[in-house]
Amino acid sequence: MSAPHDEPDDFAPSNTPGYKPTAAKTAEEYAKLDAEDESLARWKASLGIIPGAADAPATGPKVSILTLELGSPTLPAGKTITFNINDQAALAEIKKNPIVIKEGVEYNVRITFKVNHSIISGVRYIQIVKRAGVKVDKMEQMLGSYGPHPKGEAYVKNFDPEESPSGMLARSGTYNVRSRVIDDDGEVYADWDWSFKLAKEWS
Fold this sequence. Notes:
By secondary structure, this protein is mostly beta strands. It has 2 domains: 24-55, no CATH class; 60-199, Coagulation Factor XIII, Chain A, domain 1 (Distorted Sandwich). It has 4 helices and 10 strands. It has helices at 27-32, 38-46, 88-96, 168-171, and strands at 63-71, 81-84, 99-102, 106-115, 120-131, 134-146, 155-158, 162-163, 175-182, 188-199. The two termini are 27 Å apart. It comes from Crepidotus variabilis.
């Protein structure tokens, strides 16, 4: 469900001047590309591209987002804040009962995802935060370039640290967040809403 009052360009990925996305290639096509180039071979190996390997079936989404987690060195020992993006009941519960984030602390967002087929690049996480329907923050972070994991395992991407607001005004009200994972071509791989409140301590 869309958050209210979204501006049309809220989730438009930022454009890098002079950058033009290239046509998408499958893992098999990349494996065959300039096979004699050693530096390119190392880059392809870093993406999990194995020359001669059979390409994964190109069906379904290229990327599956599994979880979103909030991490902070100030979190109590053993406490984690993790959302299962595919559990609609849990996401609905978080919207009704917002998570509590400690004010004035450093935290970071990390996501777990799988690349199902092809090579991804230009995929980014965009987060819009609103309070009382007014946008108060936007975060945009690039995932990077990845190929399907040789063992079918998930990737974990830690984004740059942020600092939570502080003060009595910041602690009043609920912050509504809409998160989206999207690529340069406008293909959306995940889109979900959640909410949080700020407090003097984690809870």
